[in-house]
Amino acid sequence: MTGAELNPSDHPDHEIRKVAKRLVEQGWTLRKEGHWGRLYCPCDDGGCTTIPVAGTPRNPGQAAVKIARLAKRCPLKPGDPRRSLAGSPRENLSRRKEIGQ
Ligand SMILES: [Zn+2]
Q1: Residue 52, SS3?
Q2: What span, in angstroms and rounded, lies between the C-alpha atoms of 59 and 89?
Q3: What is the per-residue pLDDT for 101?
Q4: Cα(45) to centroid(ligand 1), Å
Q5: Using N-to-C axis directions, what is the helix angle for 14-25 and 60-72, rounded to 10°?
Q6: Is pTM, for the whole model, over 0.90?
Q7: Residue 38 Cα, ligand 1 centroid: separation in angstroms?
Q8: For residue 80, what are the CA distances in angstroms to 5, 7, 23, 74, 87?
Q9: How many angstroms separate the CA atoms of 96 and 101, rounded?
Q10: What is the C-alpha separation between 84 and 42, in angstroms, rounded?
Q11: How far is the C-alpha of 31 from the C-alpha of 6, rounded, in Å?
Q12: Residues 84-101: what's their mean pLDDT?
């Protein structure tokens, strides 16, 4: 289940807002999902990587650093075992498009 697109400036924490805003500017998509949202990388071959974004992380500074670190592994080569490790596979999105929902 993929939610509506979110604006990084909607996040309650300024450090996470900053890193999410930078990634969205680089082509990542932020969607409402899980405890707050999930970042989808700009690769359109599907199954590369997604990053969960907590709404109220215990340590926002650390969470922001982790998001930036996870973002650096994109793009992952096809067959890389880390693909989609952080979240649901991107193919869910394209499959839904095929069905036409
Ligand atoms: Zn990617």
Answers
A1: strand
A2: 27
A3: 41
A4: 8
A5: 20
A6: no
A7: 14
A8: 27, 30, 22, 11, 15
A9: 6
A10: 13
A11: 5
A12: 48
